[in-house]
Amino acid sequence: MGRLEGKVALVTGGRGGIGRAICARFEAEGAVVYAADLSEAGSLAAPDGASRFVRVDVSDEDCVTAAMARVAEEQGRLDVLVNAAGIEIEKTIEETNLGEWNRSFAVNVTGTFLTSKHALPLMRKAAEGGVSASIINFGSYDGFIADPGLAAYCATKGAVHALTRAMACDHGPEGIRVNAVCPGYIDTPMLQSFFTGEGSGGGGKSIGELQQAVRDVHPLRTYGTPEDIANLVTWLASDEARYASGQLWVLDGGLSAQVQQMRI
Hints:
The chain is α/β, with parallel strands linked by helices. It has a single domain (about 10-185, about 225-255), classed as Rossmann fold. The chain is about 40% helix and about 15% strand. The protein has helices spanning about 15-30, 60-75, 100-125, 150-170, 190-195, 205-215, 225-235; strands spanning about 10, 30-35, 50-55, 80-85, 135-140, 175-185, 250. Helix 4 (about 150-170) links the parallel strand 5 and strand 6 (about 175-185). The longest helix is centred in the middle third of the chain and has 30 residues, at about 100-125. The radius of gyration is 18 Å and the shape is globular. The chain starts with 7 loop residues before the first strand and ends in a 13-residue tail after the last strand. GO terms for molecular function: cyclopentanol dehydrogenase activity. Its EC number is 1.1.1.163.
């Protein structure tokens, strides 16, 4: 029997790099999984995800409520919500226009707010049986420290960290645990975009040189994979993590443990 046997989960950004890995792992662990994203192919341009697809723009409240209505009709409850949808803009605040700033917050922060808000009634039903439900938000190590040229992204992740703590305090008494996973460099389409030479990437280096520079700055001399993140998310979603709530779980290969970090 898998760790998530019989549980119902919804993963936003479920057709992206990290989201797809989470969906696959959840299904392997026995969960019924809804992958919520803007398109079936997602950022990987691959429509072959096995989990149930539901189209959701997390910044659109009507889209979010429609997705939750579908889960309610088909399953009657929601045990696990993973807020993995996110965008990144590689600019300083001077270079960022108001539309870009607002869009960053709309997806990364307001999206987390909306999906959590409208999932709560279904998650209370899941918690009625005496086993806690679990919300897993996505922060970032950039919510603690900053990479150059990621001002709006860093600001949104700091907001998600604070929101996670507040939600854990408010909804813990209802049997709903809330945590945030805070990745460092993970091999996703977002990271590969960083390597193409725009924003804080580039600097005249080849993609291979940039990839090696990123590996070398980590104490473990590598960056992570979506499966690394899925491992932690699976534990937080499971009953093994029944006493884990209100925490920011950094998974960055030791990057943020260093006194000084390489500027990439």
